[in-house]
Specification:
It catalyses: L-glutamyl-[protein] + S-adenosyl-L-methionine = [protein]-L-glutamate 5-O-methyl ester + S-adenosyl-L-homocysteine. This protein folds into 2 domains: 81 residues, Chemotaxis Receptor Methyltransferase Cher, domain 1; 158 residues, Vaccinia Virus protein VP39 (Rossmann fold, 3-Layer(aba) Sandwich), CATH 3.40.50. It contains 11 helices and 10 strands. Helix 11 links the parallel strand 7 and strand 8. Helix 2 packs across helix 5 and helix 6 packs across helix 7. The longest helix has 16 residues.
Amino acid sequence: MRRSARVSADYAEMLMQPSVPMSTAAAREIVTILKAEAGIRIDPSNTQFISYRLDRRVTALGMSDYDQYLLHLQSAEGPAEIQRLVESLATHTTSFFREKAHYDWLETVGLPKLVETGAGRTHPLVVWSAACSSGLELWSAGIVLDRYSHRVHGGLRWGLVGTDISAAILRKARLGIYSSSELSGLSFDLRSEYLLRSKPGARISPKQRVYRIAPALRNRAHFSPANLLTKLEGHVPLADVVFLRNVLIYFTGEDRIRAIRNVMQCIRPGGFLLLGHSDNLRSLPEGLTQAGTAIFRKD
C-alpha cells in the first residue's frame, strides 16, 4: 500500500517562508502579551511558529516588521488587535469523539448517576465545553446525551453550552458546518442521523461537500466567548458536566489552578469535570474528588 503523501496543514504552513521576519525580542514581547491576556504559554524561542501564525495579519496591516506591530498593539486599536493575536496563536486541535473513553464513561456511568440525582428532571442537564474550539467536542457530547435521553422513559431536559476565547472559532462552532475531512471519529450511522449533507452540484465533488449539524442538536446549543482566567460565574449557566480537555497544558501552574477554580464555580454540586489525559494536575483543588481517569466530581 502506498504511503500517504498528504502533509498536515500546520506542517505545510511551517514550510512556508514568512514575509515579515521576527526577532527573538519581538517574539518575547508577543509571548508576554499572550500570557497576560489569555494565560497561554508559548516558548519565545519558537519564532518560526509565532511568525507563521501572525505573518498574514501583519502583512494585511501593511507593516514591514514586528516593531511596528507591537506599537500597533499599544495604540487605540490595541485591544481589538490583541484579540486577533490571541485567536491567531491559540491552538484549536479537535475532532469528533476525541479521547473516546470519556464519552463511553459519560454514557454508561456519568449520565446515569446524574439522572439518579434529578438532573434532566428537576433541572435541565447541561453539558459545557469550556474551550469548545470549532464545536466537535460539544456536538459529540450532544450526540451521547440525545441518544441516552431517548432511552430514558419520558426523555430528559438537556442543553449544551460552548465557550472559547476565540470569537472566530466560536462563529464556526455556532454555524456547525464542517468539511468531510473534519468528520473522522464519527461513524456513518451517526453521520446519517446527526448531519445534514449539502446537495451535490455539477461543480461540487464528494470531497467538497459540507455537512451541518442537525437542528436536533443545534437548537439545544448556546455559544458565547469566555476567558477561563476571568470570573465565569453568572456568565455561564450551571453545568452538570464540563469538558475542559487539553487546555491546561498551555497554562502555567498558577493559571491552571485559577482556571479550574473559575470553572468549578459553574459546576453543580455532584457534577463532573473532565480533563484531557495530557492535563496533568500535581494536586487537586479543594472540592474535587477523582472519579475516573482524568474525571473529577465536585463535592
